[in-house]
Amino acid sequence: MTRTFDQVENATYGDLGRATRIYGEAFRLTFEYVYGSHIPGAVAEFGCFEGFSSLLLADLIAEFRAETEFYAQTFPRHFYVYDSFQGFPKSTNSVDSISYEVADSGYWREHEDASPPGTEEMLRHEFGRRLGPGAWTIVPGMFSDSLRATPLTEQVAIANLDCDLYSSSVEVLDHLLGRHLLPDGAVLLMDDYNCNRANPRFGMRRAMRECFARTDGFYEFSEFIRYGWHGRAFFVHRLGDSPNPDA
């Protein structure tokens, strides 16, 4: 089945115009900060559903790539998209299995939010049209498999995590943090930070706390912006490279 980009919907907001305003402003602020601060690295997205945020990010990469006169220094921004295109994995993790979105609402059950047929092909077509060949990579599969088979190896300036589940968020964060792929000042966009009733025992809130703690002080984070009722963006501080971590 062939899909076109004008069929793309957003899972969080039924009003596509509202979704575009909320995500568009948050993503634009992130790009303005990253480019204005001359932070090197790729843009990576983990979880794309129908490709709504993927296309917003691709358009911003193309737009900011062309603004060489405004920004004194620019860096190439390869775009990576990791998604199973099959929805959520089964929640076998003890944290996820008792979370509100799994045990109560059941919304994050296995295969929920699977991408409509043709989504991957549509994104490949649109990325090629908007970014050109060689500037993007789509990696299908569950994170537990795809990050092993096709790991990220370059620095990532902007990471958009729409992973929902605690276990999936941990897999992505441990990969980025454990391999030291986030440069100082990188931005983490955490789409589902306030899901599970914003309870710190579940989801992205718990994943952020535990994954950063495992870096033993190499990384810390602080809040950047909030967007919508659900999302929060964070600055990543890379302290392990500093001769004086307390400076």
Unreliable stretches covering 5 or more consecutive residues: 1-5, 243-247
Q: Supply the helix-strand structural class.
A: alpha/beta
CATH architecture: 3-Layer(aba) Sandwich
SS strand fraction: 15-25%
Question: What count of structural domains?
Answer: 1
Please provide the count of β strands: 7
Radius of gyration: 17 Å
Approximate helicity band: 25-40%
Q: Can you write the helix and strand succession as a string?
A: HEHEHHHEHEHEHEE
Q: Number of DSSP helices?
A: 8
Protein name: Macrocin-O-methyltransferase (TylF)
GO biological process, one term: methylation
Keywords: Methyltransferase, Transferase
GO molecular function: methyltransferase activity
Structural topology:
Elements: H1 16-36, E1 42-46, H2 52-65, E2 79-83, H3 94-97, H4 100-104, H5 119-131, E3 136-140, H6 143-149, E4 156-161, H7 166-178, E5 187-190, H8 203-213, E6 219-227, E7 231-238
Parallel strand pairs: 1-2, 1-4, 2-3, 4-5
Antiparallel strand pairs: 5-7, 6-7
What does this molecule look like?
- This protein is α/β, with parallel strands linked by helices and 247 residues long.
- The protein has one domain: Rossmann fold.
- 36% of the residues lie in helices and 17% in strands.
- The protein contains eight helices and seven strands; from the N terminus they run αβαβαααβαβαβαββ.
- The chain has helices at 16-36, 52-65, 94-97, 100-104, 119-131, 143-149, 166-178, 203-213; strands at 42-46, 79-83, 136-140, 156-161, 187-190, 219-227, 231-238.
- It has a seven-stranded mixed sheet with strand order 3-2-1-4-5-7-6, sandwiched between helices.
- The N and C termini lie far apart (56 Å).
- Keywords: Methyltransferase, Transferase.
- Pfam families: TylF.
- GO terms for molecular function: methyltransferase activity.
